[in-house]
Amino acid sequence: MIEVMPESQGKVAGVKVSGKITAKEYEDVVIARLDAIIKEHGKARFMWYLDDGFQGAAAGAVWDDTKFGFKHRNDFEKIALVGGSAWMEWLTKLAGKVVSGETRTFPKEQLQEAWGWLKA
Q1: 3-class SS at 7?
Q2: Between 119 and 88, where is the model more confident?
Q3: pLDDT in tens, 53-100
Q4: 104 vs 99 pLDDT, higher one
Q5: Is residue 56 left, alpha or beta, with left meaning phi > 0 and alpha meaning psi from -120 to 50?
Q6: Going by DSSP bridges, is the β-strand pair 76-83/102-106 parallel, antiparallel, or unpaired?
Q7: Four-point Cα dihedral 21, 117, 39, 69, nearest 10
Q8: What is the pLDDT of residue 17?
Q9: DSSP 107
Q10: Which of 60, 69, 75, 88 is deepest in the core (most CB within 10 A)?
Q11: Measured distance CA(39)–CA(18) in Å, rounded
Q12: Residue 45: HSE in the Cβ half-sphere, 13 Å Cα cutoff
């Protein structure tokens, strides 16, 4: 399940993810939100918060994320990943090579610090 976090406002958005992400959910929540932010503000600041129940993403969601990331690689100021495994941290570092904005990972205990960094 993907839910938009209440701290989201303006060009800053965060989603809390638990369970397994489906392609439809990714499109309906993440892509729709980011498209709206980019259209209104030009650039986005985005956070993925992976809770302890996160179980990965369906292949369609991963493919949609890859396509969206390449299409909008210059439309992000910052991307934060909070929680998740070591391989998710590695993927975030790899994404940092593709997108023009800053990327950073945080342990789940530093959620508030991640919001501070994203909003600064």
Answers
A1: coil
A2: 119
A3: 999 888 888 777 778 877 888 999 999 999 976 656 656 666 666 778
A4: 104
A5: left
A6: parallel
A7: -50
A8: 95
A9: -
A10: 75
A11: 28
A12: 17
- Can you give the pLDDT at residue 96? 61
Q: What gap in Å lies between CA 34 and CA 87, rounded to an integer?
A: 24
Print the domain residue range for 106.
2-119
Q: Is 10 helix (H, G, I), strand (E, B) or coil?
A: coil
Q: For position 58, what pLDDT does the model report?
A: 86
Question: Considering all CA atoms of the chain, what is the largest pairwise distance in Å, rounded to the nearest integer?
Answer: 34
Beta-carbon contacts of 17 under 8 Å, excluding residues fewer than 6 positions away, are 1, 2, 48, 49, 50, 51, 54
Query: What CATH number corresponds to the domain at position 75?
Result: 3.30.750.24
SS3 73: coil
11-54 pLDDT, tens digit per residue, is 999 999 999 999 999 999 999 999 999 999 999 999 999 999 99
CA distance 49 to 114: 10
Domain count of the fold of the chain:
1
Q: Both ends of the chain: CA-CA distance in Å?
A: 28
> Alpha-carbon distance 76 to 11, whole Å?
10
Q: Which two tokens stand for residue 97?
A: 């090579």
